[in-house]
Amino acid sequence: NAGLDKAVAWLEPLKEANPSISYADLYTLGGVVAIRTLGGPEVPWRAGRVDSMSPSDVTPDGRLPGADNGSYEKDSGHLRDVFYRMGFDDQEIVALSGAHALGRCHADASGFVGKWTPTPTTFNNLYFVVLKNNAWEEGCVKGETCKNHQYRDVEGQ
């Protein structure tokens, strides 16, 4: 979640103006509003989450998948290990991966560079279309400097 501090800072004025909402509710509501604003489905949402300051109530670091384990076999196995542990099946893992249609990689946050689709501010299925239909090669996106091993399409995007 490197880079999440920007979203947190953006939501802080809303928290100050509405002190009765928990941070947990504010952040989840922000996600629901973002999905809808970017053309995604209407996601049901209910208030009632309670914030906690106890470290024992927080999920330990390292429970989410890493970005690169060196090979397809290691990456796919790692994804399955992580998400199976949380009760997800392969279909649900693929559905969650569709969130990559939004946003981009930032070198300062992850060491990776570039957007995943030509429309990074639109909620759609282009992540899967691009992944399946484009030809890929090792290398950084044209005009960028990579810190990590990554792939780009043969057009350099």
From TrEMBL:
Statement: the UniProt record of this protein carries the keyword Mitochondrion: yes
Gene Ontology molecular function, alphabetical: cytochrome-c peroxidase activity; heme binding; metal ion binding
Class of the enzyme per the UniProt entry, highest EC level: oxidoreductase
Residue ranges constituting the Plant heme peroxidase family profile domain according to the UniProt record: 4-157
TM regions (residue ranges): none
Protein location: Mitochondrion intermembrane space; Mitochondrion matrix
Species in which this protein is naturally found: Spumella elongata
Region (Disordered): 47-71
Protein name: Cytochrome c peroxidase, mitochondrial
